[in-house]
Each structure stands twice: as C-alpha cells, then as structure tokens.
Amino acid sequence: MREFQRSPIGIFDSGVGGLTVLRELYRQLPNESILYFADTARLPYGTRSAGEILEFVREIMDWMTAQQVKMVIMACNTSSALALDAVRDEFDVPVLGVILPGARAAVQKGKRIGVIATPATAASNAYRQAIEEIVPTAQVWQVGCPEFVPLIEQNRIYEPLTKEVAKQYLKPLLQLKIDTLVYGCTHYRHLEPLFRQILPSSVRLVDPARYVVSAAEKELELLGLKSNFPSVPTRFCVSGNPETFAVLSRQWLGYIPKVEKIYLPVITSTSSPIQVLE
C-alpha cells in the first residue's frame, strides 16, 4: 500500500488547459507526484466526434496505466462528457472527470447558469444533465466556443481579437441574465481576466478544476492512496511538439518544464460551427 501511495496521479488534457488542474493539485495535494500528458498533436478535442474522443482516451489510458498511475483525472471536459463512463468500466484505476464536481459547485452559487464549453461538450448536454439531476429547477444555457482553445494554445490571450471573440460568446448568456458562469473547458480559466472585464461583478465564476481536485482528495483518502511522502518533480509528456508546450506553459507554471515526446496515432482535426444550445 505504501508503494501505491507513492505512485503518481495521471492528468491528461488536449493541451495547456489541464495546467489549471495541475496547479490546484500543487495547492491542495502538495505531497502527490504527477504525470501530466497533453495530447497536443490532436487538439482541439472540442470539434471531434464522440468516436474519436473515445479512441484517443483509450490510447491515453492504456499508456498511463502502463506508467503505473494510481488515479487518472480527465482534465478535459470533452473527454469527461464523451468517454468517462466507458473507460471507467474498462480500466481498474480510479478515473475522475471534471463535469460532476463543476455541476455541484455551480448549483451552490446560482440558479441561472451559463456554461461555456467546446462544441462537443456543449452538444453532449453533459453539464445541463448533471446540474438538473442535482437541482431540477435550475436553468442552464450552454454556448459552444470553438475558437477559445486554439487562441489559448497559440498564446493569443491578450490580443484584442480574443476579447472580441469572448464578447461574442458571452453575449447570449448576458442577455439571458445568468448569475453563474461555468468554465466547461479547463483551458478557459486562462481567460478569466477577460471574463471579469466583460461580465457584471454579480456573475459568479465556477472553475471545475478546483472542485475535481477536492473530489480526488476524498477518493484517495477513501482508497487509502493519499500520499504522505514528499512528491517528486512533475513529469510532463506531449504527443506534439515538446518545445512549443514548454514555452507556452511557462507563464502558468513559472518555469520552463522539461517535456517528453510520446508517440500516439495522429488524426487530422475537423472543424465545427459555433453552437448556442438552450
């Protein structure tokens, strides 16, 4: 059991979005060692089909379990929406997604809830279903935001274009007078300064990264896997260009990490239109 406690927690995302979960792990669970994988060769996930997402997640889970992780956190809302239930049945390691913890937090803050997400997550209705199961009277509106992830991954967060895109996506939610906004993609936490400029101060912001780590801690304690030993440095791996990821992640990590290249099958990305789902 002591050796299992020392094993790392695996986190994966399509890119730098999962760094929001990583930072929460550093803050809430400083003794845990981490294996971080970014599937940058195949991002963005949000314009993929459900079949593609499930295939990608299975490949990542196969690789992560071979690295002897003790838990996997899907730091990706699209994967959580489309593949979580399937892989939980297929793998012995505990697997956590970000949607249910985010939904639980949202209903504690408001009843008119907006969700900004990738098109695939928005189309899945995963947040609406999770929120309405908890509080059936809550009202939920979802907006698919396909341009956000590419802008973040291209390090264009502070460009005027990004602010205009954010205004476009948030406009229908403002018209609906939401009182709570959920980041339905872990990338979106990186845009919070823009959201605060655009939204009224009364709108509460929900970052599911914070709450999935709290859920992970409870699960580790329940299973007797929470580490009481000093952590080892985080291992960063990507399917795309290691140097690009290292340079981009510096602004959120505070240092340029050493990044390994991992070879997984690469499939050409597809496009999807902006969606507003009520």
Helix content estimate: 40-55%
Continuous helix count: 13
Q: How many extended strands? A: 11
Kindly name the structural category: alpha/beta
The CATH architecture category of the largest domain equals 3-Layer(aba) Sandwich
Active site: 76, 185
Function: Provides the (R)-glutamate required for cell wall biosynthesis.
Enzyme class: isomerase
Pathway: Cell wall biogenesis; peptidoglycan biosynthesis
Any overview of this molecule?
With 278 residues, the protein is an alpha/beta fold. Mean pLDDT is 94; it is low at 267-278. The chain contains 13 helices and eleven strands. The strands form two sheets. The chain has a six-stranded parallel β-sheet with strand order 4-3-1-2-9-10, with helices on both faces. A five-stranded mixed β-sheet has the order 8-7-5-6-11, with helices on both faces. The protein folds into two domains: 2-97 and 210-276, Rossmann fold (3-Layer(aba) Sandwich), CATH 3.40.50; 99-208, Rossmann fold (3-Layer(aba) Sandwich). The longest helix has 17 residues, at 50-66. 46% of the residues lie in helices and 16% in strands. It is an enzyme of class 5 (isomerase).
